[in-house]
Amino acid sequence: MPVLAFPRLSVWYASQGMKCPRCGVSCHEEWERTCISDASLGERDEVAWYAGFQLCPECERPIIRLWEGTENSLGDFQEKAEYLVYPRGSLRPLPPEVGDPYKQDFMEACAVLGDSLKASAAISRRCLQLLLRDKAKTKAKDLADQIQEVLDSGALPSHLAQSIDAVRQIGNFAAHPMKSQDTGLIVEVEPGEAEWLLDSLEGLLDFYVVQPAITERKRLELNKKLKALGKPPVK
What we know:
Number of domains: 2
Shape: globular
Oligomer: single chain
Number of strands: 6
Structural class: alpha+beta
Strand content: 15-25%
Largest sheet: 6 strands, antiparallel
């Protein structure tokens, strides 16, 4: 992970965006962040904790996070883990077309996001692997190869292809092959990995589950009208 340096009290910007855990609207990360570890009391400690606060620009409700890491004598902070303190859990409502097992896994991955990024990412990887097997009909056994199968097929829109390809890059699958081979394994995650997995799953569920269901429903409704007019149905 990169080493980040910032003062005891600062406004800290992240390069990636996030979704508000309360209203689900995308927003930029702009945290009022301060050190709350022993080091802030004048007692140098390798373990450092930072608390961050920001308001969602959409719902104007507070979001509070904690960052755990290590800090050297120069004040350089290396992030180890991130926790969502408030609100508890993460709100990412799914359309009614998405049923189990995808819905259950997705909602569980959201529910534990604030307590354990590693657990959330593990559930999301497992859900992603199942989705690609069921809907994309992938044959590979591990997730990295499944992703490559889908990319090689050219079936996904470009934005979804880029999103799913980034799952491997952000997750650093080359350095952590067990993320691909044993998707449910609880292992270290990279910054932004858990939320990126949820974002990718949302897009893929819309493509593989929601839109086909909406299209089929419209087809059935149209055929009812055509039948009433004595015309042949749309196949």
